[in-house]
Design goal:
The protein is mainly α. Helices cover 38% and strands 5% of the residues. α3 crosses α4.
Length: 156
């Protein structure tokens, strides 16, 4: 079979390319791969999300293609490697006094008629985030400036 002539360092050989012309067109002269713009390597069998970074030079098993698709393994520099899972970065927790301040301010904002529509929307969004994430709510420096401005408006 012609697949053996392709080596891993040559990268993927895509279905429909000059090196691997389409042979799957049906009677209606349509090919779901070529016409759909899908990436499918005729050497390793990887397609779209199951394409490793480099072509391993031979067919992957279905199990191996699943591992590639779910980003557990990849083929790099001529060998299979395990992919390290990304560590979720959490913001530092809000100190309890800041959380108490936000909770009180948001309750005051909900009862107030002094805020603009934009400020009301900002407070609604922040209230939803505080309810959902509690001490893990991320608040940027710019958002703290807005919160301080709203506090000044509410407690004049």
């Amino acid at each position: 079979m012609a697949f053996r002539q392709f080596k891993p360092e040559h990268g993927h050989t895509y279905h429909g390319s000059k090196a691997a012309p389409c042979t799957t067109r049906g009677d209606d002269d349509r090919c779901f791969v070529c016409d759909g713009g899908l990436g499918w390597c005729v050497v390793c069998g990887g397609a779209e999300a199951s394409l490793p970074t480099s072509c391993p030079g031979r067919k992957m098993s279905a199990d191996l293609a699943d591992l590639v698709q779910h980003r557990h393994v990849d083929f790099l520099c001529g060998e299979w490697v395990l992919v390290e899972p990304k560590q979720e970065q959490r913001p530092p927790p809000l100190p309890h006094d800041r959380l108490a301040f936000l909770t009180e301010l948001l309750a005051d904002a909900e009862a107030s008629t002094r805020l603009t529509d934009w400020e009301d929307k900002f407070c609604d969004d922040l209230r939803d985030r505080v309810t959902r994430y509690s001490i893990w709510t991320e608040v940027s420096a710019r958002q703290w400036e807005i919160i301080e401005r709203i506090e000044g408006k509410l407690h004049r």
